Structure to design on (542 residues):
């Protein structure tokens, strides 16, 4: 658990400091663009749903494409992926600015450009967040995540105000152009960064296999599923304030683009304060209580803003909302990172983003539809009620504490010497592990095997089964399949230090002086399926 004094510790690392500063500039441009897009939609469309969908168009691609990006982040050079994403977003921003200067922007065209920028964000975010473990040591990781959130919200405190000023004094097109220029700093910083990735002793997973492995790992990790469910629920309700803020500015406060930028800035100031308080809050409260307090605080803020007609009061009410936003989302992010081994962290983070931003995209449409029918005030009240209700969800699905498990590689496995000349793609491979278990130890053995099953399937095993010998009931056999020999090696290298307890328990329950016997077999057909005729010549062993 990080101490309060460690909040600024990641700044000791030159690479983190350089990339963090460059990201500030890029975030500033993105927030200026967001103000321009949100305000332009209020001027070219009378639909509340269209206004809310500007936020949805930004978050929807993250829901759709984050898993693919996470698979790329875990298997390819993360720096190159981020460079590609930033370059693509710069090109889209230049095109958007050009269309705006020409007066060619329509509501659906604006949403399309915003969607493309969201695609770039979806490609960039998983490798960027997964890179935190490459840039700073594990003990500084929570502080690095908090500083990233604080950096974004530092820009949120000034970026929207600057964006509102640009829109009010020049044009929306100028705001889009400012965003295009802002990518230069981060592209340059990424170009200079030369990360030292650990060498790979196994070939990369195929793209589809990598995505499947990420889904399988998360689906067999109850703590990760809990974090993602809570992130999804928080995203649905909490996005209401950001999605409806242009309507709040225009309809509840009677303000313009400058007021809108100021309100976004107030939210950002609150988020910065939340970042500074994060360490103290984590020392005092459990993860679950932090999320509960964040939901209650955000819900109260939304309800009070719905009844406020005073511009300055609304600014003040957005401060706790910003702080609660950081408390919840940074906690979700850190919990995922510290509950996931390095080999799959990019995919786990991408699935967390898919859940959270999917909730935000859903919430943007939902609260926009409510505002269209009943007005933005009632939509804000409704989202506040949902946030209050989500507190009760924690009674059944409590957020886990992070950092309790050692997820470093176990590194006990040594590739066996084989007498068959197998290739990496040889398979299917069947593994049998024989145990001799005394009758009085059977309940403990079955409990350990239940945990073993989850670990095996999580790390890539298929068709797992536990067998008992009918003639010698003390003999139990664990069996499972993997598609190829390389997948068997990969399966064993995914084992973590935290998994060692289950293995040690099983070996202690095994009777005898020798360790459980392992049979590694390759499946072979002895007759063709087509005609049931014997094969000619010796069977193919490859």
């Amino acid at each position: 658990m990080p101490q309060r004094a460690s909040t600024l510790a990641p700044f000791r690392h030159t690479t983190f400091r350089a990339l963090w500063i460059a990201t500030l500039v890029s975030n500033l441009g993105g927030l200026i663009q967001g103000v321009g897009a949100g305000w332009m939609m209020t001027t070219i469309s009378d639909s509340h749903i269209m206004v809310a969908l500007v936020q949805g168009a930004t978050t929807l691609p993250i829901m759709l494409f984050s898993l693919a990006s996470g698979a790329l982040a875990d298997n390819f050079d993360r720096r190159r992926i981020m460079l590609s994403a930033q370059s693509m977003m710069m090109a889209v921003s230049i095109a958007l600015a050009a269309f705006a200067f020409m007066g060619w922007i329509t509501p659906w065209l604006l949403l399309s450009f915003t969607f493309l920028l969201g695609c770039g964000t979806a490609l960039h975010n998983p490798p960027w967040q997964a890179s935190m473990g490459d840039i700073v040591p594990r003990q500084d990781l929570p502080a690095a995540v908090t500083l990233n959130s604080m950096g974004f919200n530092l820009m949120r405190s000034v970026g929207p105000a600057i964006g509102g000023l640009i829109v009010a004094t020049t044009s929306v097109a100028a705001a889009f152009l400012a965003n295009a220029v802002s990518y230069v700093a981060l592209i340059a910083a990424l170009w200079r960064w030369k990360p030292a990735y650990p060498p790979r002793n196994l070939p990369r997973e195929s793209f589809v296999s990598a995505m499947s492995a990420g889904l399988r790992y998360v689906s067999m990790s109850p703590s990760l599923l809990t974090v993602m469910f809570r992130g999804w629920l928080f995203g649905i309700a909490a996005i209401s304030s950001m999605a409806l803020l242009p309507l709040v500015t225009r309809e509840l406060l009677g303000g313009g683009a400058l007021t809108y930028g100021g309100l976004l800035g107030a939210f950002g100031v609150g988020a910065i304060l939340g970042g500074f308080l994060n360490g103290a809050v984590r020392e005092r409260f459990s993860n679950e209580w932090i999320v509960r307090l964040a939901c209650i605080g955000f819900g109260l803020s939304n309800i009070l803003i719905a009844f406020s007609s005073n511009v300055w009061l609304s600014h003040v009410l957005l401060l706790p909302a910003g702080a609660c936003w950081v408390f919840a989302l940074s906690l979700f992010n850190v919990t995922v990172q510290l509950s996931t081994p390095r080999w799959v962290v990019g995919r786990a983070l991408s699935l967390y983003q898919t859940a959270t931003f999917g909730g935000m995209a859903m919430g943007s449409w939902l609260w926009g539809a409510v505002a269209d029918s009943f007005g933005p005030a009632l939509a804000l009240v409704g989202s506040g009620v949902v946030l209050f209700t989500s507190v009760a969800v924690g009674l059944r699905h409590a957020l886990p504490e992070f950092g309790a498990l050692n997820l470093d590689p176990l590194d006990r496995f040594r590739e066996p010497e084989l007498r068959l000349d197998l290739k990496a793609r040889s398979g299917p491979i069947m593994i049998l592990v024989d145990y001799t278990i005394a009758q009085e130890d059977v309940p403990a053995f079955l409990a350990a095997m239940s945990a073993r099953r989850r670990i095996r399937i999580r790390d890539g095993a298929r068709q797992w089964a536990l067998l008992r010998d009918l003639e010698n009931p003390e003999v139990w056999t664990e069996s499972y399949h993997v598609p190829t020999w390389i997948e068997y090696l990969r399966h064993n290298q995914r084992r973590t230090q935290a998994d060692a307890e289950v293995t040690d328990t099983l070996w202690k329950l095994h009777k005898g002086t020798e360790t459980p016997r392992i049979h590694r077999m390759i499946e072979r057909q002895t007759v063709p399926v087509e005609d049931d005729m014997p094969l000619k010549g010796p069977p193919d062993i490859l």
In short: The mean pLDDT is 86. Residues 279 and 431 are 47 Å apart (CA to CA). DSSP finds 17 helices and four strands in the chain. The radius of gyration is 27 Å.
